[in-house]
Amino acid sequence: MSLAEEMDTVTGESAGSVDRHATSRTFESTDPATGAVVGVFPLHDADAVGSTVEQAREAAASWAALGFDGRRQRLDAYRGYLARRLHELADLVHRENGKPHADAILEISLAIDHLAWASHHARKALGPRRVRVGLLAANHAAYLEYQPLGVVGVIGPWNYPVFTPMGSIAYALAAGNAVVFKPSEYTPAIGAWLAAAWRAAVPDAADAFQVVTGFGDTGAALCRAGVGKIAFTGSAPTGRKVMATCAETLTPVLMELGGKDAMIVDDDADVVAAADAAVWGAMSNGGQTCIGVERVYATAAVYDRFVAEVTAQVRSLRPGSDDEATYGPMTMPSQIDVVRRHVQDAASAGARVITGGTDHDAFPGEGYVAPTVLLDVPEESAAIREETFGPTLTITRVRDAEEALRLANDTSYGLAGSIFSGSKARALDLARRMRSGMTSINSVLTFASVPALPFGGVGDSGFGRIHGEDGLKEFTRAKAITRQRFALPTNVMSFHRPANTADQLARVIGMVHGRHR
Ligand code: NDP
Fold first, then answer.
1. For atom 4 of ligand 1, which residue has the closest CA?
2. Phi then psi for 179, rounded to 5 degrees?
3. Per the residue annotation, which of 290, 294, 386, 387 is the catalytic one?
4. CB within 8 Å of 239: residues ≥ 6 apart
5. Architecture of the CATH domain 3-257+468-476
6. Spatial separation of the C-alpha atoms in residues 85 and 93, rounded to whole Å
7. Beta pairing partners, 180
8. Which of 178, 290, 428, 516 is the most buried (most CB within 10 A)?
9. Taking 90 as the threshold, does the pLDDT of residue 162 lie above it?
10. What is the 3-state secondary structure (H, E, C) of 339-398?
11. Strand pairing of 209-211 and 229-233?
């Protein structure tokens, strides 16, 4: 029997904590391609969220007490479970989010890889270590360790409903925290499935990972529930609301927000490879990717060839929900209006629409948007300045890579970006100066698949990091301990110190540090 069947055909009734914190109010999630109901889920109110967090708090103590090895063993069991049921989960992702089954497999595979990395590197990144004591505490030993926060609340989006929350869930669990996860109202079945899978794979720590379902109010209740941290992934406007709510209780926040990522195509770039990457980065997942390519700046030397190549490649794309479709419907129907506004606004400001369009060709109904490429879009247009989150791409001709970098950086966002260049030194220099948390050279999105690399943005793209050692530390507090190994004849931190102690100290400091000019 599939996990979905065990979950009472994904009614959420037996998913995670849901059954034990039942409420009479429910909501449905639907297949964006067909409108069919995927599942019915409880609308958890503040009381239900509070009791879930309380239960997670109790579980957090025993989860932390398992230590790195005990947690690693259980996280390994979880990833084994997910790997064995990969197709089942991919099918659910396809039905509830709309993306092709193959893309769902890619997403889940990435999440499993992160789970493995987090559990296997937690001890090295977070475990107790001795650190050098320095001059003033030479008779002490000093210890540093990274302790869990207790319960971490994870609020996630719908666009990568497995990979994105798992970037927080896996790392928070590996660091010794319990997790309460609030999935998007558009993808609650996937969240409930992940929690039910945890209960099945890790029965002796079942309450360490639980799910609550509902709308924004449920997320806000989680912010107020006294968790040790909120890891939020979503749009910048909602991120501001989440921060304001968390400020009421001084709950720390991790903000993984939207982006307006740019690709730079330099004079000596492999134009065919750059076009292939731009089309994938912009159109896969229907363009509903926080680190998707939204803007391309191509130098005059390659612009015409690049546009021709992108145009040719885009023509082979087809949105749909069948096995041959390259991407699915828009998961959140209201997003279509945002995409339409950006395209129409660009067109009326003089942009050339070379594929897709502003009419029925681009927006054929039933939740689909055709791949749309826009040229000569004025820099002040919404299509350049706001996150579009649809299968669109702007391509702008620039003089050289320096102008490209200036325009790429001229955004309030700063999540990621990519550079195509034939010169390693030049590409690395541009990457370092790109104002973003992550940059791929001669590929797109690759940094997200390297578990050792931190993931996160700057500016309106948020702050804090998931993934890598930084991502593990994000879900901990640093704990500093010193231990006096032997007493010195003179203790500078005592009212009994001799009167000349400070002068002696000043002399020593002068000798050690004073020679540096
Ligand atoms: P939203 O900001 O609309 O929602 C994100 C989550 O917050 C959802 O679970 C939502 O619940 C919840 N929420 C809504 N209102 C509140 C509130 N007042 N208090 C607490 N929680 C609330 O984002 P989307 O789901 O539309 O996701 C798309 C966005 O996510 C894009 O901007 C994208 O760039 C960004 N993103 C960023 C990533 C990153 O790592 N930087 C990765 C992936 C996506 P509900 O759905 O029930 O309203």
1. 234
2. -130, 135
3. 290
4. 232, 255, 257, 462
5. 3-Layer(aba) Sandwich (3.40)
6. 12
7. 153, 210
8. 178
9. yes
10. HHHHHHHHHHCCCEEEECCCCCCCCCECCECCCEEEECCCCCCHHHHCCCCCCEEEEEEE
11. unpaired
Q: Which helix (H) or strand (E) holds 180?
A: strand 178-182
Assess whether 290 carries a catalytic annotation: yes
Q: What is the pLDDT of residues 434-466, one digit of tens each?
A: 999 999 999 999 999 999 999 999 999 999 999
Q: Which two tokens stand for residue 516?
A: 């540096």
CATH topology of domain 261-450: Aldehyde Dehydrogenase; Chain A, domain 2 (3.40.309)
E strand or H helix that includes residue 154: strand 151-155
pLDDT band (50, 70, 90) for residue 363:
confident
Domain ranges of the chain: 3-257+468-476, 261-450
Residue 128 CB neighbours (<10 A) = 12
Q: Which of 43, 155, 218, 223 to mutate to test the pocket of ligand 1 (most atoms within 8 A of CB)?
A: 155
Instruction: Report how far residue 184's alpha carbon sits from residue 34's, in angstroms, rounded to the nearest whole number.
Output: 19
Nearest to 113 by CA among 67, 160, 166, 158: 166
pTM metric for this prediction: 0.95
Q: Whose CA is nearest to atom 13 of ligand 1?
A: 216
Q: Is residue 97 within 8 Å of 158, Cβ to Cβ?
A: yes
**Residue 380 annotated in active site:** no
Backbone angles phi, psi at 304, to 5 degrees: -65, -45
> Is residue 120 packed enough to be buried (19+ CB in 10 Å), middle (13-18) or exposed (0-12)?
middle
